[in-house]
Amino acid sequence: DVANALVRALRRLHADRALDIETEGEGMFPGDRQDLIEMLGNLLDNACRWARHRVRLRVMQHDDALEIEIADDGPGIPDDAREAVMSRFVRLDEQADGSGLGLAIVRDIGALYGGELHLDRAREGGLSARLRFPLGE
What we know:
about 140 residues; about 25% strand
């Protein structure tokens, strides 16, 4: 429900760009709804701002973990900068809007639930941001 509501809002916000925002899968986040909104909101907004045409949100629930991947077809982040951009106030493009806090916030909130944020190259060519949360036994 959270992901679908955020996607609807971002489709309206970025309507002038006619982005294709695709969602697939479902799962249950093992934490506070507001924390999930904060994390997904940051990641989806980043993906929509940098995407050329396409954003993909994929949720996979396994027996031991919940994985959420948000990927786009934008320019991505160079391999050697991926760790740095998860630090507070670090931005690769100083001309772009933003404070440089979004990825750090996602990483920090995720860590409260034992989760991890990994950044990689997306199959679409841009950035893949993957959150992984362990599920209780």
